[in-house]
């Protein structure tokens, strides 16, 4: 039996962004942890939210639903939301289900910050 673990942490980037780092396995067992973190994160048009998933090793449909919820909240509040560090496999899943049309992707947090400042 695999020990499914997820860590989800929030920090503030010095260039006016909130970074949510997601590491481990995002599935129906661990999704509530990320959902709670997203719900507790202030969303506003003045501060971008970056979801850094560069250390995400697994994501099932429940995890995809969490990302969609974050997208919907960002749309409702006018918050810039970027997904950072998406691996090739997960990017392929996002393309297949059409989420590549909704989200903005950047390879690193610094690339995301630089893109926001441009």
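Q: What amino acid sequence fits the structure above?
A:
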């Amino acid at each position: 039996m695999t020990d499914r673990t997820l860590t989800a942490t929030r920090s503030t980037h010095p260039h006016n962004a909130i970074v949510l780092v997601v590491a481990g396995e995002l599935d129906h067992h661990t999704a509530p942890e990320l959902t709670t973190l997203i719900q507790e994160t202030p969303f506003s048009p003045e501060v971008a939210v970056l979801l850094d998933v560069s250390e995400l090793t697994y994501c099932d449909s429940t995890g995809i639903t969490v990302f969609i919820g974050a997208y919907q909240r960002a749309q409702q509040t006018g918050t810039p939301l970027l997904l950072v560090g998406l691996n090739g496999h997960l990017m392929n899943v996002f393309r297949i289900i059409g989420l590549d049309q909704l989200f903005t992707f950047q390879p690193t947090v610094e690339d995301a910050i630089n893109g926001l400042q441009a």
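Q: And what stands out in the fold?
A: The helical segments are 31-40, 61-77, 88-96, 109-117.
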